[in-house]
Structures are given as structure tokens and as C-alpha cells.
Amino acid sequence: MNNKKTTPAGKQAGSVTNSSQRGMDLSALFNVAAQALSANQASLNQADTENQNHGDNMVQVFNAISQVMANQQGASPSQQLSSASQYLAQNGTSGSAQAYSQGLAQAAQQFQGQPAVTPDNAMLLVQSLLGGGQQAPAQGGDLLGSLLGGGQSSSQGMDLIGSLLGGQSAPQAGGSQQDDGIDLGDVLNAGMSFMNAKQQGQSNLQAALTALMSAGPMAKPHRQQSGQIVANTLLQFVSGMAKKP
Fold first, then answer.
1. Which of 28, 52, 135, 166 could form a disulfide with 181 if both were Cys (CB 3.0 to 4.6 A apart)?
2. Distance (Å, rounded) from C-alpha 164 to C-alpha 198?
3. What is the pTM assigned to this prediction?
4. What is the C-alpha to C-alpha distance for residues 36 and 45, in angstroms, rounded to an integer?
């Protein structure tokens, strides 16, 4: 019923396949994040010891992203992400706006040729967004891929994160410098952030996101705090969508 497709794999497999293929309304996705940021606006302002306006800036940024995408309904994910990136680049007045502009631009590249953002590929969006547009190392991997899959002092927890973050094959971090923008020092710093976050009781996924934000323009404490709110909200939205039949 309701155009559900039946598959030989059985009821559960059919349900998962259908939900995982359903495209998301990106405007609604970013609007949910804007609402979560608004609920934490005062605490984010307080966490910003430099200007005391980080919460205000983040609410403004995500409302703008949502509005741009609402005006782009029907366009491909890559086009919507690129339009939002360009808007922030031209109109954003804060460092956070510029960081998210770069993250959106990176996400637009990641989603080129893909018809929709789905629960299967949404982690690419979260990674790009919170990475602040960091250029990936060689062979198409990302910072987390280098950290979690390079075969250096990995653990079962790190292997789990690798699976959670998309199962992409990771480049070896064997040299002292990666030519494409992330060097071994970044990877090691991210590794330390991952382990510290785990010791503080964060889940594997939360710790991996903390590690991602530690190596780029999101490294400031107040940006990491808002980044965790964004990540948790987006992932909850994706998880809820994945559970729908």
C-alpha cells in the first residue's frame, strides 16, 4: 500500500530499503537545526568569550540556509547546498558563517550527481558541514577516514566509527605531510581529541565528530559546542526518517 515496493528479501529488508532511498527536504532539515540552535542561543552566546554573540550568529546562519533551500525546492542537493554556500559567502558577517559556507561548498561537491540526500548518505553532509570545508587528503578520503582507517593504533571503537561514518576506504597516513590540505599533525590532533572525548564519556559517534571539528575552522570551543548541537539534531532527523516504513 502507498506505493510500497515488495522485495524478495522480506518485510524488514523492504522497509529499510524504502526508507533509506527516500530523499530529504533539505530546507526542513536545516530548519530543525535552526530551531535547536535557537533553543540554545543564550548558552551559546555565553560560551563565546570573544564576542558573546555566537548563538545569535548561528541562528541567523541556519535560518538563512533553510530559507535559501526553501527557495530552491526541486533543485538537486548539490545545487541547493551550493546556493546556500554562496549566500553565506556573500552575506555572512561572522566567522562561523564563513566556516559553514565552506562546509556547504564541500558538501555540494560531495553530492554532485546524487539525486537526493537520504539516510544512507546523510553522514557525508554532516562530515562536510562540520569539517568547515577542509580539503580532503589524497585518494578521496577525509580527515576522519585518515584517522579511523589508517591502520595506526586503531581499536574496535575506531573501526565502529569508520562504519558509522560511511564505510569509505581511508588513505594511509604514512607521510609527514598530505599535499591536499590536511597533514599528519592534523590527523594526530584529531586522534587525541577522539580519545579525550571518549574518556569524557562521549559516544563513539560524538567523539568522532569532536575529532572532526578539532582540526579546522570549527576548533574554537563555542563552535564545537554549536557544532555538536547541529550534528545531534541532523542525525536525530535522519534517524527518525530512517525508521519510517
1. 135
2. 16
3. 0.69
4. 14
